[in-house]
Amino acid sequence: MAKAYDYLFKLLLIGDSGVGKTCVLLRFCDSAFSTTFISTIGIDFKIRTIELDGRKIKLQIWDTAGQERFKTITTAYYRGAMGIMLVYDITSEKSFDNIKNWIRNIQEHASAEVERMLIGNKCDMLDKRQVTREKGENLANEYGIKFMETSAKGNINVDEAFFSLAKDIKAKIDKRAAIDPLGKPAVIKPKLDPHNKKVSTSFWSRCSLF
Amino acid sequence: MNLSMFQQFFNVLKRVKSIYQDCKLLLRTNQQTIGLEIMEQMALHQESAYERLYRWLQSECRLLTTESPEISTLIGEALDGLKERQVLFKYILDEYGTARRNALVRGFIDALTRGGPGGTPRPIELSSHDPLRYVGDMLAWTHQSTASEKEYAEILLRKLKDWNELQKTIQTLLGYITEGLCRPLRVRLEQVLVSQHEPVTLYKLTNLLKFYETTIKQLLPIECQLVLVLDEVSNLSSKMFLNALNATATRLIEKVDIPTNDLNLSDELRRTLALLRDILETHSTSMIPFESKRVDFQQIVYSIIDPLLQMCSLSATKLGVIEMAVYLVNCISAIRTTLAVFAFTDEKIDMLEGQIEANTDTLIGEQATYILLRTDLLDAYRIVEKQQQESNTNVTALALKPGMDTVTLKAAMVKFDLYLASPDLYIMPQLKYLTSAVIREKIKKRSVELICAAYASLYSAIMDPKNNYANPYSIMPHTPEQIVKLLS
């Protein structure tokens, strides 16, 4: 049966204010980039459907405000997330140091199953770099998560990051479905089995008009 | 059921419609009877097809009860095919709406009581002791779910050609689906509100509710039940916050303390200012629109600052003029300092500064009078002032007036010289209770200016020949300019 999408994944972007979360999202969903900094008010979301291993995956990506004053609001959105991107700015040591606090937030508010990924944004600004690639990789290894450096401005690794995170979520879901075929997680969109008696085909089996 | 079978069905339906249309031509010929018979037959087949299509869609929609429903493209195609039968089309939308509504309510209750798989994230109810997190989690869940429901509705109805009609149908559908959340959500939100009596928490909740009302409003039709509930609850929260503020204000006015000996702020006043600071901090960091912030601020000011000022005035009534002025300057300065760091406060700060200025002027005058009194020049100065106000005709020479003789004036000038040597010893004792060093300095500086002006006035009167002083320079050896230099 043809479907609009096979999976719906809810992703979340978190990190300090000004690291480029909104720009990364804008680049991924609208193929655009803006140099104007407008602080996100609370929360916003965008949607993009991608294809992975011949399956259509709808990504509902929630963009959070990084400022402390929005913490009450943004942490409430961790609960529904299946994948979280932790974004820091490679030109800001402070934003990198704060990743540990963001990880702590995830542990406190998100599902234990949530996939995580570390993103070092603004990698086009090499002359202003404060955080080495190695430091980013080490932190990612410490938490057992994937790491990528991106640039929303230069369109470097943005698609790759989202595709990689989506792939990991899909792998986890497929694995769970294989172990427990009866347990049907809300996000799985299994292909309908024609032998499955539950599928309502009675009308279609006698759909002749005469 | 597969795609080819689906297409076959619609091809046949299309053919039936075509035959029906073609038969209309027969009605214009002498083959009317056969034309009508075929049309009747085709109409029956058509209705039978729509009925079957409706039944299939109905059974499919009833299966869409998982958190993420599986809406196949065939459902969209079938729904588009049913569009010609508006009544059946509407019934299917109702069926879909009911299925999603039930799924949404069940999902909400699960999120509240069961949490995620394996217990993470934890059930929302577990944070019911923390009102902000509890309300925030419920509303964030509602927001995310509403966004997802909008997605599903768009998938279901994506075949609708007319964009305006599509949006209208989606909005109506979303309004109906989310209506199921109204009761469980309202009950819990109101429960949280009625258990709160602390103004700061109530204000934070009000801002949180207003933020979500604005955010969720962007996804739903403005007249839908969920938006109305959020609007009502945020209004209730706002009302409760203002009631809590008014209760605080009433307590202030009922419990007027006599100021302490050090003329400093009472504990009640300090507590209220701390409360005001917390509220204004919440106000300045809140996410509500700019205009709402301005209105909010005016309400807060009206509810707290005006009663505070009233309380200060009432508690100062039993004090002397100087003590009252010092106490009021201390109180109003503290209020001004609290407001200074926040937005929208300019107008109120101007008003407070006017009051500080008025009380400071009182203290400047009193300080100057105090110096003149201690140097025995007050009476002399008043006599000179009085003389200057009288008309020049029949004016008695100053030297002849009681208390203005050379001996008395010389004795006073000895005391004045002592003042010039140590002006700091001539500061009113009450001024040390002023909490603002800046205001204290201002009073000292401006009172010195008044003393210099008073000295200049005395000097010119004594030097005036018509006042009959034989040797005026022996009485006042220093010129006003020298006095200004000595005191600056």
TrEMBL record, chain A:
GO terms for molecular function: GTP binding; GTPase activity. Pfam families: Ras. Transmembrane segments: none annotated. It is a lipid-anchor. The keyword Amino-acid biosynthesis does not apply. SMART domains: ARF (SM00177), RAB (SM00175), RAN (SM00176), RAS (SM00173), RHO (SM00174). GO terms for cellular component: cytoplasm; endomembrane system. It is found in: Endomembrane system. SUPFAM superfamilies: P-loop containing nucleoside triphosphate hydrolases. It comes from the Eukaryota. Its main location: membrane. Keywords: GTP-binding, Lipoprotein, Membrane, Nucleotide-binding, Prenylation. InterPro entries: P-loop_NTPase, Small_GTP-bd, Small_GTPase, Small_GTPase_Rab. Belongs to the small GTPase superfamily. Rab family. NCBIfam families: small_GTP. This is Ras-related protein Rab-8A.
From TrEMBL, chain B:
Pfam families: COG6_C. Residues 32-487 form the Conserved Oligomeric Golgi complex subunit 6 C-terminal domain. It comes from the Eukaryota. One of its GO terms (biological process) is intra-Golgi vesicle-mediated transport. InterPro entries: COG6, COG6_C. Signal peptide: none annotated. One of its GO terms (cellular component) is Golgi transport complex. This is Conserved Oligomeric Golgi complex subunit 6 C-terminal domain-containing protein. It comes from Rotaria sordida.
